Amino acid sequence: MFHPKLFENRNVVVTGAGRGIGLEVARQFLDCGGHVLVHTGRDSDRQLPDFLLVAEEERRAFLVPGDFSSHDGVRLFAAAAAALFERVDVLVNNAGTMVGRFPAGDLTDEQYETVVRLNQTSVVEITRALLPQLKASGQAAIVNTISISALTGGSPGSAVYSASKAFVATYSKALARELAPDGIRVNCVSPGTIATDFHERYSSREKLEQTRKSIPLQRLGTPEDCAPAYLFLASPLLSGYITGQTVEINGGQLIC
Ligand SMILES: NC(=O)c1ccc[n+]([C@@H]2O[C@H](COP(=O)([O-])OP(=O)(O)OC[C@H]3O[C@@H](n4cnc5c(N)ncnc54)[C@H](OP(=O)(O)O)[C@@H]3O)[C@@H](O)[C@H]2O)c1
Question: Which domains does the chain have, with CATH numbers?
C-alpha cells in the first residue's frame, strides 16, 4: 500500500503485535522495509503467522514476549528493546485490553491496578525507557493506541479502561509539546469497534450487531482499516508537521 522503502533503515517497536491491530501494524511496517521489534504479547508460545517467522529468520523482525501487567515485565521488555536498537525511529504503544467488565461497585483494588498498569502505566514506562533511543533518531515518532471510549466513556463495566485510554490521550498531547525540541512527534490512533479477539472476549454478538447498525459506514472496522494510520503518523515524509493529534478510525461511529 505504502512505498516498500518508506521505512527502510528505520527501527520500529510495536507492542501488542502478536495478534489483532498490532499484528497488522507490524506486518505493514515490515512490508515497508522497517526493522521491527515485535512485542508478541504475554505468551512466548503464541502461534505466530509465517510472515513473522520468515521475517525473524531474515533478521528483519525481532520477536520479544513480555507481560506488561507487572513492573518487571515492562522493565525487561524495555531493556530488551534498548539492547536491540541503539536508535528507535518509531515506537507504537499498542498493547492493551479491557481485562474484564467490572461494575463500579464491585471493582477490586487488584482489578483497578491491573487495568491501569497495563493500559496506562506501561505506556509511560516504555516511553520513558526508550527516550534516549528515540532522541538518537532525530526524527522519531511515537504513536499510541487509545480508544473511541476515551471520548465517549465506553459502555458499562469499562470505566477504568476508558479512563486509562483518556489518560494516554492527554499524556500524548503533553509529550508532543515537551518532546518537539528533540525532534520527536507524538500522536494517537483511536480505534472504534474493530473486529479482533478483543470483542470476542468483551462483547456479545447481539451487542456487536447493534453497534454495527449504528455505524454510518454500516460495518465494524478491521485491523487493515487501522494500520495505515499508524504508518502515516510514523513517517516524517508523510506527517512531519503533525504532532499532538488523534486519528479517529470508527466508520463515523463518533462524529464531533
Ligand atoms: N478492537 C477494538 O475494537 C479496539 C477499540 C479501541 C481500542 N482498542 C485498543 O487497540 C489495542 C489493540 O487491541 P486489539 O483489538 O488488537 O486486541 P487484541 O487482539 O486482544 O490484542 C491486544 C494485544 O495486547 C496484548 N496484551 C494484552 N494484555 C497484555 C499484557 N498483560 N501484557 C502484554 N501485552 C498484553 C495482547 O497480547 P496477548 O496475546 O498476550 O493477550 C495482544 O498482543 C489495545 O490497546 C486496545 O485497547 C481496540
Answer: 11-248 (3.40.50.720)
